[in-house]
């Protein structure tokens, strides 16, 4: 039947399948032109590009199919998978299919072909531990034994890393390059050391003794790697081969550092046997092997190092000795061994000026403190750069067991640091009840306790510090004989408790006769303090005490504030309500003749404004010393909501202050556009002039407030014609003050007005 018509006979033909997912590499020779009918039919089915079913047949473990395919066209032997670039030989080697490997090599498969990762068939056979396949491929005469993949691994590297030592031996016998480095700079001797491959290691040494101290990219020698991986047998060999045990890697670590850090005791003891070992070599952090042992808590290694004369006083980059490090981690056995050293400088300070005892106290290491204090040379009151003793640190962190130990051992609890703090001050400030209790025992035992001054530089007492934090339980532990003592601000402990709204602390202090009549340096009473800090609970508690009600009218000297003024100024609505309920004066004025309502309007709090006017309806129009009403204050400070409330309560919108200005003047002058609009809607006249003859427009134009000018002119077009006492228009004010945008706006308005008059 012709190729152009009818159907083809299917006998002996296969359908097009997934085998067509491969293509021939560009180096594959072109096939001869098909001549017979069946050759032409194969071209139709398999394609004329050299595609092959060989790889898929190998994957599917169809040996006879592979043979048949190769018998038909042996030139497709090196066809590669499009995705992986692997040949059939790659797949056979990877799966350990020796029969296939033999078949493909018989058909002269390329044993050096590399896939997309650079792996040859030999790489894949080795990686998967297929000894027979590896051996067969290695018999190829044209094998390039040292080809590397993308990871720079040769077959030899790969065999060593995988631990296939038989393959390694075979490769060495074929003169593979054992000095070639991988991507990390490791040669075969490094890999053998890291993998503890003794036979290979010995063989390599025989081949090239000079490479025994070779370094990789990290500066590690075979000895470093053996120590790091815990391979003591390799270390034995390296010792016999006279490896240099003092070489440092790029981090400055010797093999001894790595053995200690890794906790490899057998390796450690082997390295310690090297005759030329320098035991005190330090790394880039200035840490010796002794530091490493102390930090990790390896007391047995630490003991051996000390026995061999390791320097127990060596300091690392931070100035820490081995004792500092052992203390930090709570490694008591290491501490014990270090403290037995006759040459130990037990009070050595690090760069932070902390001794080991400081460090132990700071971290709450009670047992470590005890061990250090048993040393005859330990200074229990040693100071750091801030003059803090170990007792200061323990008090600051509430390590009361350490405090108890230090006090029992004779620590001086009266010493002060550079802030003039005693340990008791820190405990009180932090609210550490147990620590305060231990320190107060020492205080009470002191024969001079009654005359001893406990105040700080600013005259604060421990009681003040505890009260300031609301630590009422601590207050109960502290001295109360100076409960009414005042600091440099003339505040008492009661003041500080009220300031923080600590009602329980206030209650305790009042029970212990704290004086409520004392005033601070600023002239404030405890009621002022409560109102100022919105201390609702404390204010309520204080107002229910008979002796505090007389303080309702007390005034602060500088501002003239009563507690009610103070509450309003702080926008403390709840406090203001309580004070008014307890008959605080709502008419009393402060400095400048300001009533409570003036202050509320200034703060813009409509809630407080409403509250005050509910007590005194006439307050809405009361004037201060500048003849300003509360509305003036609200307008001046842009408080729209306060203005609304005041207007609703009948304030005089046209009232003038001492300078003849209305609230509208002040809003225009301060550029409060919303207030300006509100006042205009509620009847404020923009034509009223102040004592200088200025309208609100004059003031807005003079300050360059364009939007305010627009609001005013849009609501009162004749304003642009109004003159002040100097016969100046608002446009003149804009020009004089170089407000070009305002000037341009007013010019345009004036022009329109003239055109309208025509």
TrEMBL record:
Spans of repeat ANK: 84-116, 117-150, 151-183, 218-250, 251-284, 285-317, 318-351, 352-385, 386-418, 559-591, 592-624, 626-658, 659-691, 692-724
InterPro entries xref list: Ankyrin_rpt, Ankyrin_rpt-contain_sf, Dendritic_Spine_Reg/Scaffold
Repeat recorded as keyword: yes
Gene3D superfamilies, A to Z: Ankyrin repeat-containing domain
Domain of life: Eukaryota
Keyword tags: ANK repeat, Repeat
Transmembrane found in the keyword field: no
Designated name of the protein: Ankyrin-1
Gene behind the chain: ANK1_6
